[in-house]
Amino acid sequence: MIEVSGLRKVYEVKGRKAVVALGGVDLRVREGEIYGVLGQSGAGKSTLLRCVNLLERPTEGTVSVAGRELTTLGERELREARQRIGMIHQHFALLSSRTVAGNVAFPLEVMKVGKAERARRVAELLELVGLADKAKAHPGQLSGGQKQRVGIARALAGNPSVLLSDEATSALDPGTTQSILALLKRLNRELGLTILLITHEMSVVKAICDSVAIMRDGLIEESGTIPELIARPGSRLAAELFPLPEPEPGTVTVTFTGQADEPVVSRVVRKFDVDVNILGGALEEVAGVATGRLLLRLTGDERAAALTYLAERGLLVQEA
Ligand SMILES: Nc1ncnc2c1ncn2[C@@H]1O[C@H](COP(=O)(O)OP(=O)(O)OP(=O)(O)O)[C@@H](O)[C@H]1O
């Protein structure tokens, strides 16, 4: 759905050294998934997101969304293509002089949608985000979470196939963050909306993302589906989601996704002549799947056979 290839963005600032915000980024977001780009401040996340709808012109590389290569389009075609790419912002970017309904109607006015159809569509969008009773309110009378719901309704006005989210929950408290993330997940499921979001919070990735790219210094360090990354030896995502003590020689790190119901450790002890000592562990719900990592010391004559048994059960076994 979104294909970014060889993307470079260099900011030339007069009298200062040029800043390489993106140093050659490839990204592939599949239709219907929620894809998170995670990174510290300055990693290049906003630049990447703004290049996806060409708010920012890449210095090099190509961007295609829903099969259209955006970098080759003229201004008019680009405006049309952008109507199918919604965007939501950290600070909501609402027009304070307009009512909630007026804010949602704004893109429809730009698209020259007739008055009656506009009113129908605005009512439908406000219903979708749970704000039907706030149509006449002004943004100043709303909570942060309600403002972001207006932002989401406005972003969906043009029936986009893709939604770009620029730190949409960073200005919200934890409870409100969860309700906005749940709304995004519902829109993803019900409308088949593909979502590309940027965030500096692992909790956002953990709550709703199917795939993730970790960015640092304008480059992607690792990317893939979350189960893929958790199972990848040396993955930074796995280390950050499941921090474990430094493995000492002789210890074993065991990663499991979705097999949390099986008592594998007690089975290993019963089946094989081994002792198991749990040195550390973490269990998390990741995108709705129970996932965990354990640091074990396994000793005994049948150690090798026990490790093979764990690997055969689909667990990732890494010896220190
Ligand atoms: N318009 C600009 N002119 C010059 N440099 C810029 C511009 N926009 C961003 N940069 C620089 O590009 C680099 C990447 O910035 P970017 O905003 O994309 O990172 P980020 O990961 O989104 O960080 P943050 O979360 O703080 O916004 C930074 O070094 C930043 O200072």
TrEMBL record:
PROSITE patterns attached to this UniProt entry: ABC_TRANSPORTER_1 (PS00211), ABC_TRANSPORTER_2 (PS50893)
Molecular function per GO: ATP binding; ATP hydrolysis activity
Pfam families: ABC_tran, NIL
GO cellular component: plasma membrane
ABC transporter domain segment(s): 2-242
Stretches assigned to coiled coil: none
InterPro entries in the record: AAA+_ATPase, ABC_transporter-like_ATP-bd, ABC_transporter-like_CS, ACT-like_dom_sf, MetN_ABC, MetN_ABC_transporter-like, NIL_domain, P-loop_NTPase
Family annotation (CDD domains): ABC_MetN_methionine_transporter
Role according to the record: Part of the ABC transporter FtsEX involved in cellular division. Has ATPase activity.
Similarity remark: Belongs to the ABC transporter superfamily.
Subunit structure: Homodimer. Forms a membrane-associated complex with FtsX.
Entries under PANTHER family matching the protein: AMINO ACID IMPORT ATP-BINDING PROTEIN, METHIONINE IMPORT ATP-BINDING PROTEIN METN
Protein name as it appears in the record: D-methionine transport system ATP-binding protein
Organism: Streptosporangium becharense
Origin organism lineage: Bacteria, Bacillati, Actinomycetota, Actinomycetes, Streptosporangiales
